[in-house]
Design a protein that fits this description.
Layout lengths: L11 E5 L3 H13 L3 E5 L2 H7 L6 E6 L7 H10 L6 E5 L4 H9 L4 E4 L4 H33 L3 H11 L4 H8 L3 H15 L4 H8 L1
Parallel strand pairs: 1-2, 1-3, 3-4, 4-5
Length: 204
Amino acid sequence: MSLVADKPVAATVFIVDDDPAVITLVTELAGAIGLKAQAWPSAEVFLAAYAPTGPGCLVLDVRMPGMSGLQLQKELAQQGATLPIILITGHADVRMAVEAMKAGALEFFEKPFRPQELCDKIQEAIKLDRDVWQRRKEREDAESRIGSLTPAEREVMQSIVDGKTNREIAAELDLSLRAVEDRRARMMKRLQVESRAELLKLLK
């Protein structure tokens, strides 16, 4: 895989390492594939500054003064963060690697690592996180559209979800067929769907 991405990606590689040389290397790799990079010399400083605003991944040193990389990984998990984590260390052992992967790390590299392998894994991590952000955006958008419905439109929506026809809905709600059709049309327009299949997909 080339170090040059097909197109720029609006994402950030977060780097937490107390080794300036590693920070420089990872920053250059990120730039080579069209990614922004932000670096911190310790886990504590990163935690105080990190605010997720878009797709990204975390390249994290395991052994640092103060909070270790594994401790930071656990803290982020407890906070519900979904940021993919790539761990690197100059002092690896099997137990440490197993612990990191069980805790959800995407990869565990031992120094000295091959820049191309790290680069490839960063791109994989970014793709995973972009998918997470896209799904989150779709959910929020769906919730916003559903929230715009009137109680009457919600009633019709639920009946459609239940598989009822317009005539069945009209009889159940004691409405005219035309009234149901009008409510259904308004509901579908607000939700930006054109069929029951699309409605079910939106509510999934």
